[in-house]
Design brief:
The protein is mainly β. It has helices at about 15-20, 70-75, 140, 165-175, and strands spanning about 25-30, 50-55, 55, 85-90, 95-100, 115-120, 130-135, 150-155, 180-185, 190-195, 210-215, 250-255, 255-260, 270, 275-280, 290, 305.
Amino acid sequence: MSSPGGGTGFRGLDENSVGLKDAAYAYRVIDIQAESPLSHAGLVPWFDFIVKAGNTSMVTNEANAWNKPSFSDVVAANEYKRLILTIFNIKSKTTRKVVFTPNRDWGGMGFVGLTVKYDEYTNGIKYVVHVLGIEAGSPAHDAGLQPNSDYLLGTVDGVAFRNGGVLSQVIKDHLDESLDLFVYSSVADTVRVARLRPSSCWDKDSDSVLGITIGMGVKHFIPSDVCDTNGCVPVKSIQTLAAMDSDIIEAENTPGVVRVLGARRPEYDVLTSCGYGQIHGESADGSAIVELDWGLANNALVLGLFQKE
């Protein structure tokens, strides 16, 4: 895919940045373990790909290339050393740098605490399933899926919905069993995990095991007006702004997150369960009001209530 200027057509990414002109496959971020070396790096599951580790390109033209670069080998060779990752986000089509130190001292398995899968990234954003309608009382309804704004991305073990046949097979394989899917919300700009349980018994009058109407193809891609951000992960511990005792100028609530457009100047740095931030004050119950270091769309800030230890 080439732009008139001779690049790849991706903002912030060209053949020089990944080391291969016709790059197609790299390491997709699937899961980040809590308190791991990369847990506070702002990685976004599914949308983020590791295209370079240190000076080593992670990109090839083939999904099953026998000589594909080994991310784990590069990480192991840099134990207790500063390592720079180049991350490409398929939603915003931009690259950024992440710096961390691989180590075994963080309390979990491995050097990084990261689950990745070698997968296609050049067309990865096109493989989405648009949720158009939800039947009341259905498995999709019980899982909290939202019509029009939700998009099914793939399974938590990295199976992308490249076509309707893949989705149908995944559902068939999980009939009457739990099925965890990555879901993107265009309203909250978040990637979350939704647990569904496909069933043919939830309604005798329905011929759908999920109770869902979907769309695929060009007309059902993620809207371009929300593709200027990387997306983010919902912060479950953030509470409503009503109990916050701070100088909030204007705020907007969305499911699972709180977007704040203005607040009191921070006092000092703290480490919370959701990452680093700055204390703004205390709520009525004594909880610390913390502005987290990472933000949301349109440069919106994120405030959370956290119990002091």
